[in-house]
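Fold these two proteins, one after the other.
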Amino acid sequence: MKKLTAQPIDLLEPSGSVHETIQKFFDLGIENFNRRRYRLAIDYFSMAIANDPQNSMAHYYRGTAKIYSRDSQGAIDDLTRAVEIPLSIKELHLGDNAILP
């Protein structure tokens, strides 16, 4: 299994406490996913999504964690939502999990 790495979520988001909180939830989700603590990872990705419902990467990773947690319908719902949300420039080009090189 490919190890995920935390990366910034939105290049256009101004720096500040809300953005930092979302990023912290996302990072903790990635950390727990890598440790195979899928339920905890889902909880952290859910907190990131609650603060930023348009965060396609949080939906994607939460859906992936739900696959490992055997929640197939939840995974389908999250992964479907992830592809419906337009990706930001940062999500396309930065980090180990980048979609484009």
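Now the second one:
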Amino acid sequence: MDISLKVRSFGLSNIGVMYGLNADVRVRLLGDVKGGFDLSTFVDRTLLAICAKSPMEYAVAMSGKPRLGYLCVTKEGNSRSVGVIIKKRLVGCMERLH
């Protein structure tokens, strides 16, 4: 799930304008709660996963996708989650290799 910083700032600043600065307002990110301030239309629910046995080049290529913050690493055969590759850490690691 990803919400760009500009969208978050816009949405959260509008809560203060719409409900008053001291209001206690629920913020909905997934659209499942009734009432409150709905940011669900701004949420990117795209999940990108990579098999644990895939070559590292695949992860590097996928990290070039816009708005990708992380890759879910899954076990081959049953798609069980075995970890997460964070884009910032992957890019940092690649920069140290060069």
